[in-house]
Backbone:
């Protein structure tokens, strides 16, 4: 059973934080949600690969939660590593600030890349257990306090870190992956003062009820942070989905529905809100990236000494379009449109958000054709299918952009945007057939204006 005073603390803290967060989004008078408290010592990354038997490691609390401790059993399987972790003395994360609602276990690669392994929910005795799986074979483990469980990068509030035991098997080549090398979140949200804990003699509730309330307020936290990150402007559709899922979770809670339904709806809201926040930050960054003048100026032809001194004949533009289309349409489906030459990469060209290496290798003719005509640009548009996350379309567009730049195109000549759920020809509905990435090649040499690059 969980004491109801813990829930009351969450409700009180979140009611203040939500109101302050809304004010911050409206007035932009924001303050960092995280006070940066970097743990000075490093985290040992252990190589668990090819171990026939399980091995164990310990967890020790940092200066932020010195009484916390734990241990984990790690088993290396073919293609994955299984972790069974247990923790003790995990007091409420709200002690670090009203915005912190939960704990998250992270696997940290030797290069400092962080992988969210899952949420840690302490019981009424401040104990918790988490079973997780990762594809990593070499990693360190840390626990952080977070505003919600669906975060993509760890906060600076590192509360536990793994500790090598004398009997730990697999510590042959430990690598130092320092916590201060990890990327920092840029969440901002104006929060109020801690109103203090509720009465200690409050009645108790079941663990399932506590989890439902905790997930519900994590969702509220996530939506508030996404809104403060300007998701209402830069990712309105995704934010609207998150708000709808949050409303559904609140309705289920109010009607005393099954707690599993409340948890499911709340987690959907949290994840969608995190997608909206990430999209908003990426689109703001793209908007702030300077682009060359995208106006439609009369195309110029190069003179004998390279100077631009003659207007291009429209017939020459048509011929260049035709040649460009012929060179590109070998490995890819391409078509000539009013927007320019459009190349379509279907869903099969990707493995999740990643571009398949076999497809990336076929970009050479496209890169060569575009790079050979100064003034041409490539606008990469990610389109999602029905029911897809809008973040997926953006991540796929990013993957294509990176492949084009790696192939030789100047970074300033390739822009990206997530176009959401749209079909060829402008239809706004449909199944997975709409999941694709389009490369729009345009510019004065072919008489088509590039897109603005603004999401």
Residues:
């Amino acid at each position: 059973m969980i004491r109801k005073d813990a829930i009351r603390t969450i409700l009180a803290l979140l009611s203040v934080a939500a109101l302050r967060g809304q004010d911050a989004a409206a007035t932009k008078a924001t303050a960092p949600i995280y006070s940066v408290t970097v743990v000075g010592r490093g985290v040992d990354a252990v190589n668990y690969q090819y171990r026939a038997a399980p091995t164990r490691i310990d967890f020790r609390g940092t200066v932020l939660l010195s009484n916390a401790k734990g241990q984990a059993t790690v088993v290396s399987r073919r293609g994955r590593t299984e972790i069974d972790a247990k923790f003790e003395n995990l007091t409420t994360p709200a002690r670090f600030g009203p915005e912190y609602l939960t704990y998250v276990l992270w696997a940290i690669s030797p290069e400092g890349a962080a992988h969210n392994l899952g949420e840690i929910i302490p019981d009424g005795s401040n104990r918790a257990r988490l079973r997780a799986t990762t594809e990593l074979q070499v990693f360190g483990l840390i626990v952080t306090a977070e505003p919600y469980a669906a975060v993509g990068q760890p906060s600076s509030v590192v509360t536990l870190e793994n500790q090598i035991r004398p009997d730990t098997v697999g510590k042959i080549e430990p690598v130092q992956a320092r916590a201060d090398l990890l990327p920092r979140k840029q969440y901002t949200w104006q929060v109020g003062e801690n109103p203090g804990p509720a009465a200690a003699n409050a009645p108790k509730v079941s663990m399932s009820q506590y989890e439902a309330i905790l997930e519900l307020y994590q969702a509220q936290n996530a939506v508030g942070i996404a809104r403060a990150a300007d998701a209402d402007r830069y990712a309105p559709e995704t934010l609207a989905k998150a708000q709808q899922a949050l409303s559904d979770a609140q309705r289920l809670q109010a009607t005393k529905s099954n707690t599993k339904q409340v948890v499911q709806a709340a987690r959907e809201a949290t994840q969608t809100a995190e997608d909206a926040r990430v999209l908003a930050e990426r689109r703001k960054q793209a908007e702030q990236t300077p682009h060359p003048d995208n106006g439609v100026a009369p195309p110029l032809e190069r003179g004998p000494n390279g100077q631009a001194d003659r207007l291009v004949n429209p017939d020459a533009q048509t011929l260049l379009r035709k040649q460009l289309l012929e060179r590109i349409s070998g490995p890819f489906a391409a078509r000539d449109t009013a927007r320019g030459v459009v190349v379509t990469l279907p869903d099969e060209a990707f493995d999740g958000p990643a571009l398949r290496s076999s497809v990336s290798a076929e970009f050479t003719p496209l890169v060569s054709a575009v790079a050979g005509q100064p003034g041409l640009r490539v606008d990469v548009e990610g389109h999602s299918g029905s029911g897809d996350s809008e973040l997926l379309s953006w991540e796929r567009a990013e993957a294509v952009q990176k492949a084009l730049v790696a192939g030789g195109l100047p970074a300033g000549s390739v822009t990206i945007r997530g176009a959401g759920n749209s079909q060829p020809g402008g239809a706004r509905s449909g199944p997975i057939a709409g999941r694709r990435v389009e490369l729009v090649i345009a510019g004065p040499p072919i008489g088509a204006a590039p897109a603005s690059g603004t999401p």
